[in-house]
Amino acid sequence: MTAAVPTPPPVQPPVPTPSEQVTALAEALNSGTMQTVRKMLRALHPAEVAQLLESLPRAQRFIVWGMLDHEHDGEVLLEVGDEVRVSLIGEMDEDALVSATEGLDIDDMADLLADLPEAVSSQILNDMDQQYRSRLEAVLTYDEDTAGGLMDTSVITVRADVTLEVVLRYLRRHESIPSHTDVLMVVDRFEHYRGVLPITALLLHDPDTLVGEVMESDRPPIPADMPDGAVAAVFEDRDLVSAAVVDENNLLLGRITVDDVVDVIRDEGVEALHSYVGLSEDEDLFDSVLSASRRRAVWLGVNLITAFIAAAAIGLFQDTLERVVALAVLMPIVASMGGIAGSQTLILVIRGMALGQVSSQNVRALLLKELGVGLVNSLVWCGVVALVAGLWFDTWMIGAVIALALIANMVFAALTGVVLPPTLRRLNIDPALAGGVLLTTVTDVVGFVAFLGLGTALLL
Amino acid sequence: MTAAVPTPPPVQPPVPTPSEQVTALAEALNSGTMQTVRKMLRALHPAEVAQLLESLPRAQRFIVWGMLDHEHDGEVLLEVGDEVRVSLIGEMDEDALVSATEGLDIDDMADLLADLPEAVSSQILNDMDQQYRSRLEAVLTYDEDTAGGLMDTSVITVRADVTLEVVLRYLRRHESIPSHTDVLMVVDRFEHYRGVLPITALLLHDPDTLVGEVMESDRPPIPADMPDGAVAAVFEDRDLVSAAVVDENNLLLGRITVDDVVDVIRDEGVEALHSYVGLSEDEDLFDSVLSASRRRAVWLGVNLITAFIAAAAIGLFQDTLERVVALAVLMPIVASMGGIAGSQTLILVIRGMALGQVSSQNVRALLLKELGVGLVNSLVWCGVVALVAGLWFDTWMIGAVIALALIANMVFAALTGVVLPPTLRRLNIDPALAGGVLLTTVTDVVGFVAFLGLGTALLL
């Protein structure tokens, strides 16, 4: 059978990746064709505008911010990081800020309100209608990092004792349905959460069916005080699009949608690496020099203290160093290998704790395994180190000293890497923030003392 | 008006956080009450079983794996990390593996197939029905880390020229609708993608409406070869639940759903921190000692080379060190402060590049800012360092030497932090993987040479 020649398909341009758009726009900005810039800006989503603003040096950032039609100001402010948001808000007058918040969802309004100047936020609160305001106040009573702070209060609720036909008629009275509505929430007459009615059930079942017959009552609700990280884990484990949020009496407060959960997961990922080197999660790429310096100065100061502690450890062995200068040359190797091996263990344990995989039940087994890994790898590498050191300084004894010190430091590093995070957690210190600095202090001190101590004992 | 006493609300137990469940189960396991363990296991979702298995030492892991009813083996295998999956597959016989893959979605099957022994995977491929197999082969032609590798081929498609009534009747013939179906895909008669029909449109509009009248044609499809990180950015920016995947001719191949995107974002976050210390993304907490050692040995070897380079830099100044032992004591301070300052800049730039915020257009502005931050913070701290060093060794000259070296190293560290990631990217080396090690090599060498060189010039 010969096929008829098909009409040529209307190829739709695939979505450009965000960075391509931003690069093109930044080029247009630099070449100064404002007409082009304006045209490109109009084609961008608020999230893309946000990304563009974040990647512009401050002077250009404020120029572009001024060129935007201000219809989506609120959405853009919600998408940028905290620091960039504050820089943009600083450039806006009161009227612009008030109008930027118009029409926002409750959860978004709650996020934004915290960053606005006092005068503006109280004006906005005054202008609000009563219902919106009382809902907003409900969200504001919860910490930003909990389910209550994440939730949106625009929820469609239905009763279990009505038919799908009634629900369908009720929905048709809406002009639109809130985005990410994959389920309607089923409540009793006191607004207690009973379960969910999937939208698809409305399509698949006979309209005469009762909601109670096809609702899913095995979907537990999320308590409003659950930390946002745990909420994210629930969404990941159960592949949810939305979930009900309830108070301690099972009263339905609102719902959380996956788009907000995605942001939580992204922020957790960025935060993990940032806090490991003492950066804040929301660091503005183009913060002012003084403000960025101030933020990072504290971390450098902490590191300076630990560096002096390591130096003091070396200072104990000045006599030895004066007589065997080779020890001074080689000592960073022992400290550095311990630091690397310990960091690997540390990161593994911190991640395991964050995912709920490390507990008092298995920390012992984990310690044994990591000590084993530290021992095996120190044995593997100490031979190489001893050989190179022995050849370099033409004496095998220094090879023996560095090999023994390396084994001691790498095994102690494994011990520290396993024990430190749970200990810090018990002291209410974030292991992801303080763990790395403390660990390298330990591996520096142990490395220097082991190496120089053994050198004093065996070489003098 | 006195209210009638309401009936007491049926309080539903809120969802326990994953780690609480896992801890309770691990306790039951350790106390040896197998009856309890079996009961608890039955109450867990596959994702929770996966988490439990990941947090158990290997011996216990295999015991629990044997106790599970094997209905959800496939789902559990998909949820655990790569390394844990391989350990579990190693414990299963051929029949168990074949039945574990029964009923899997195409995208999941593609993921699992790669980890199965040759004999098993060819048997599974042979037993497949023709349609499923050709769809699977379509997915397998794409790299796992692209949109094509992420996509599922179970898509409900409709034509633009039918009425909603026809669509509704067509849907009612299904027993269920694939999860995360927020939109139906609209295609022409050659299966070219034309847009989406939101499920809610079926509810809100008159059944006589044509699909073409209410479909959304402004949702660009995702090309099958788009990298998964860019797919995640599109989902984040546009708050999508699902999106169409097309080939270069706009032919609809499948769809990507947000639950898979969530996993991509989570993995990216874990990977960022893990690769910074040379761990693989899927590191098994309870890998065997030998296997874990082998994985980490390479990274330690790379670090050893860089440590010897730093030692060689120190070796250039042996005469100086013999005469001024204070330099040996203080030299780690200069190297360490440069390493910390440089790492902060490096992480900021790497993240900026990953988010598409750093480009050739703004790297110059970024460099100037980071050089400024490096200069300001080195000026802030060099005074403190000089004071302590001067008091400690009772000579102000050594304070001047360490202050100057600190400024030089911190400014050079900022330069390296900005320039290194784009350079590595151009050489096709992952900056997140190699950046940290290379940066500290630079800051060690520059720190030691600057400090000992200045010491040689000014103190001898």
Structure summary:
The structure is a homodimer of 460-residue chains. Chain A is mainly alpha-helical and 460 residues long.
Structure write-up:
Chain A has 460 residues and is mainly alpha-helical. Helices cover 65% and strands 6% of the residues of chain A. Chain A is built from 22 helices and six strands. In chain A, the strands form two sheets. In chain A, strands 1-2-3 form a three-stranded mixed β-sheet. In chain A, strands 4-5-6 form a three-stranded mixed β-sheet. In chain A, α15 (228-238) crosses α16 (258-276), α17 packs parallel to α22 (431-459) and α19 packs antiparallel against α20. Chain A is globular. The model of chain A is unreliable at 1-6 (pLDDT under 50). Chains A and B meet through α1, α3, α12, α13 and β4 of A and α1, α3, α12, α13 and β4 of B.
Q: Gyration radius of chain A, to the nearest Å? A: 30 Å
Average pLDDT of chain A: 90
Biggest chain pair interface: A-B, 147 and 148 residues
Widest sheet: strand ordering of chain A:
1-2-3
Instruction: Name the beta content range of chain A.
Output: 5-15%
Number of strands of chain A: 6
Helical residue percent of chain A? 55-70%
Number of helices of chain A: 22
Outline the secondary-structure elements.
2 copies of one chain form a homodimer.
Chain A: H1 18-31, H2 34-42, H3 46-54, H4 58-67, H5 73-79, H6 82-89, H7 94-100, H8 106-113, H9 118-127, H10 130-140, H11 147-150, E1 157-159, H12 164-172, E2 183-187, E3 193-198, H13 199-204, H14 211-214, E4 222-223, H15 228-238, E5 242-246, E6 252-257, H16 258-276, H17 289-315, H18 318-323, H19 325-354, H20 363-393, H21 396-426, H22 431-459
Parallel strand pairs in A: 1-2, 4-5
Antiparallel strand pairs in A: 2-3, 5-6
Helix pairs in contact in A: 3-5, 8-10, 15-16, 16-22, 17-22, 19-20, 19-21, 19-22, 20-21, 21-22
